[in-house]
Amino acid sequence: MLAAEYSTATPAAIAEAVGAAYDLDVVGGVFVVRGFNDTYELTLSDGRQVMARLCDHRYRGPANVDFETAFMAHLDRSGVLVGAPLAACDGSLWRMVEAAEGPRELAVFRKLGGDMALQGWNPAKAPTDRQLDDIRLLGASHAAIHTAGERFVGPPSLYQLDGPFFLRDPLALALGAPTLDADTGHKLREVGERAAARIEAIAGDLSRVICHADNHSANSFIVEDADGARTVGWFDFDDCGPGFLAYDLCVLLWNQFRRARAPTLNENGLAVWRVFIEGYRSQRPIPEADYAAIITMVVLREIWLLANYASRIPQWGQLSVGADFFRDSLKLLTAWETAETPV
Q1: Phi, psi at residue 283, to the nearest 5°?
Q2: Percent of the chain with pLDDT over 90
Q3: Contact present, 232 and 141 (Cβ < 8 Å)
Q4: pLDDT band at 227; cut points 50, 70, 90
Q5: Is 236 left (phi over 0), alpha (psi -120 to 50) or beta?
């Protein structure tokens, strides 16, 4: 048998694994999306649907699934709407299964409904009042996650989401990409070194929370009840862990930059950012030092992205993460270095 860098499990195989371990009568399933993990939607005999996630091997190391599932269960108990993990027959919230390339972590989650807050929005157009209201809700709910995190007691996180986690290993991995040209690599190293120096200088002044760590607005749904009340439902806590508040807030801003394909935001993008921060501040303050550091965290987030894409070259192939990808990213990073967090 040929050795595998990565394999795609069939929905039938996932359904069988879940049916054997959980008190769930699985009658069908579909493969939904391949990202940094593989996600499946399973249908039960009573018509309900659940989501199953098969973790992929990532450069950071093992999946932080003990911490992740315990934290999501805590949020669920705390009144934050999440796609909570389901317990297997033995009470565990995840289990290891064998794949062609080796063991991978499998977990099952409650399925959420609803629409994404900015679904279909084009930064060239002004967001609607409803979209702005939804982003304001997203900010307030993000604050609720941080508040609930202050009361979390559970398994320790494998990772601390701080400067070394986002710079040392990710930068080394990106610089080792076979498609990175020498000139871009040299400049990228300099950007990383300057970012490391800035983080070291301010780290002692920054607040820490339990981060969702991937709130780019597409890892949550706006859920509407029968009375028309709208709330936010969260999923994809795969990258969560204790870390900088400024980093957890930066991800939405970073995503707005990338949506605009520019190192600055137009008024439409700024409107989205402002109401997100307004919503957050309606529930929790953001200390001045943390707010100022958000733009520096945007640099860390981009380097994190470079590392994750570089690590996928053995799976996706060199044409999927070519030299232009790194050059375009360097242009953004260079611009963000001298920018300030939008007010």
Answers
A1: -115, -30
A2: 89
A3: yes
A4: confident
A5: left
Residue 61: strand, helix, or coil: strand
With contact defined as beta carbons under 8 Å apart, do 37 and 54 qualify?
yes
For residues 101 and 133, give the distance between their C-alpha atoms in angstroms, rounded to a whole number: 45
H/E element holding 71?
helix 65-77
pLDDT of 166? 87
Q: Report the pLDDT averaged over residues 166-175.
A: 92
Describe the crossing of helices 288-311 and 323-337 by its angle, rounded to 10 degrees: 170
Distances from the Cα of 46 to the Cαs of 27, 42, 82, in angstroms?
Answer: 9, 12, 22
Backbone angles phi, psi at 79, to 5 degrees: 95, 5
Amino acid letter for position 288: E
- DSSP reduced 3-state for 70: helix
Q: Phi then psi for 36, rounded to 5 degrees? A: -80, -5
Residue type, 65: V
* Residue 185 in tokens: 């690599």
Distance CA 112, CA 49 (A): 9
